[in-house]
Amino acid sequence: MKKQKINFELSKIAEGGVQVKLNRALQQVADNILNPNTEAKKKRKVTITLTIAPNDKRDAADTLVEVKTSLAPETGVPSTMLLGRDIKGEVHINELKSGIKGQEYIDPDTGEVKTDTGESIDEIENKNKVVDLQDKRKEN
Fold first, then answer.
1. Is 138 exposed, middle or buried (0-12, 13-18, 19+ CB in 10 A)?
2. Which of 69, 68, 72 is nearest to 41 (CA)?
3. How do residues 88-100 score in pLDDT, each as one tens digit?
4. Sign of CA dihedral 10, 16, 21, 22
């Protein structure tokens, strides 16, 4: 059996272009692993594909080197939507912010009391303010 010399080093192909692509892919993998919004234990992949297309004389071949990554997707963000229709039949969709439908909560950022959909109780009460006509008569 003849011994053949193969002088085709990945790091030197295309003047180092393959190494640049591999380094970029490894950077993406590292960024993905360090992203706290991805699963820590999920496996990532770097795939190097070498495509070889020989000519008719079989004395040369065009090669194409592709580097691809398979990264862990970012984890989903759970939420609950409240769905319903108003008295006019129009659809309303709001995110449930309190954790339980119908429960008010205190906004941790503002300290304001809000509805289960995050609407300010003070704003609602000001919109629906009941006028006490008895009280108005006493002022005159």
1. exposed
2. 72
3. 999 988 888 877 7
4. positive
Q: Quick check: 62 and 50 in contact, CB under 8 A?
A: no
Residue 81: strand, helix, or coil: strand
Distance in angstroms (rounded) separating the CA atoms of residues 91 and 113: 25
CA angle, 11 as apex, 9 and 12 as ends, to 5°? Answer: 65
| Mean pLDDT value across the chain | 86
pLDDT more than 90, % of the chain: 46
For residue 23, the number of C-alpha atoms closer than 13 Å in the C-beta half-sphere is 7
Query: Radius of gyration of the chain from Cα atoms?
Result: 32
Rounded CA gap, 45 and 27, in Å? Answer: 12
pTM here is 0.58
Looking at the DSSP bridge assignments, the partners of residue 62 are: 53
Q: Are 96 and 115 in contact (CB under 8 A)?
A: no
